[in-house]
């Protein structure tokens, strides 16, 4: 089942197949927070947010992981 990586974007949805989604969130080449492309970054943000909603992550853990993911992406300059 496709997953929308940009559910609230004014640019519109960005759908990815379930298999591709799991491949993207499973990438850990240079550490889980290091993303080589925007699609991977969006998939990992989605994964964290879904984990929070499902109660798999505490709010402090979510905030720490989300902040790291965003900071690393912004430092990359893409």
Report on this model:
This protein is mostly helical. It has one domain (3-76). 54% of the residues lie in helices and 5% in strands. It has three helices and two strands. It has helices spanning 18-25, 38-53, 59-76; strands at residues 3-4, 15-16. It has a two-stranded antiparallel sheet. Helix 1 (18-25) packs across helix 2 (38-53) and helix 2 packs antiparallel against helix 3 (59-76). The mean pLDDT is 94.
Helix and strand content put the structural class at mainly alpha
State the helical fraction. Answer: 40-55%
Helices and strands, in order, run as: EEHHH
Shape: globular
- Report the sheet-strand fraction: 5-15%
Number of helical segments with 4 or more residues: 3
Poorly predicted sequence stretches spanning 5 or more consecutive residues: none
Distance between the termini: 29 Å
Strand order of the largest sheet: 1-2
What can be said about the biggest beta sheet? 2 strands, antiparallel
Q: Any descriptors?
A:
two-stranded antiparallel ribbon, 78 residues
SSE layout and pairing:
Blueprint: E1 3-4, E2 15-16, H1 18-25, H2 38-53, H3 59-76
Helix pairs in contact: 1-2, 2-3
What is this entry, summarized?
By secondary structure, the chain is mainly α. It has one domain (3-76).
């Amino acid at each position: 089942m496709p997953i929308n990586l940009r559910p609230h974007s004014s640019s519109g949805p960005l759908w990815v197949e379930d298999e591709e989604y799991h491949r993207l969130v499973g990438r850990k080449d240079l550490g889980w927070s290091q993303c080589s492309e925007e699609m991977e970054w969006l998939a990992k943000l989605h994964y964290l947010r879904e984990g929070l909603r499902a109660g798999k992550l505490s709010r402090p853990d979510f905030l720490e992981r989300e902040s790291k993911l965003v900071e690393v992406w912004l430092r990359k300059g893409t």
